[in-house]
Structure to design on (78 residues):
C-alpha cells in the first residue's frame, strides 16, 4: 500500500534539509526501536507500519531533493 504523493497537498510544499531523507530514516529507526519494546502485537504492528511510512517519506524526499543516492544512503552520525 503506497501513498499517492501527487494528491497530497502537504508534500507539495518545499522541504528543508531537516525534512530530507536522513531525517525520515531516523524517524523510521526510532519507530522500529519503539516497536521492539512493545508487548502488545497491535501496537507493535502499528509502529512497524509507521516506520514503513517514514521510509516511503525518505524515498519521496530523496526524489524531491534530486538525490540520486536514494534513502538508504543516510550520512553516518559522528
Amino acid at each position: 500500500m503506497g501513498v499517492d504523493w501527487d494528491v497530497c497537498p502537504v508534500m507539495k510544499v518545499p522541504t528543508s534539509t531537516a525534512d530530507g531523507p536522513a531525517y525520515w530514516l531516523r524517524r523510521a529507526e526510532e519507530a522500529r526501536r519503539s516497536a521492539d519494546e512493545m508487548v502488545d502485537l497491535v501496537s507493535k504492528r502499528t509502529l512497524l507500519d509507521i516506520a514503513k511510512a517514514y521510509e516511503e517519506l525518505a524515498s519521496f524526499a530523496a526524489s524531491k531533493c534530486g538525490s540520486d543516492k536514494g534513502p538508504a544512503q543516510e550520512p553516518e552520525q559522528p
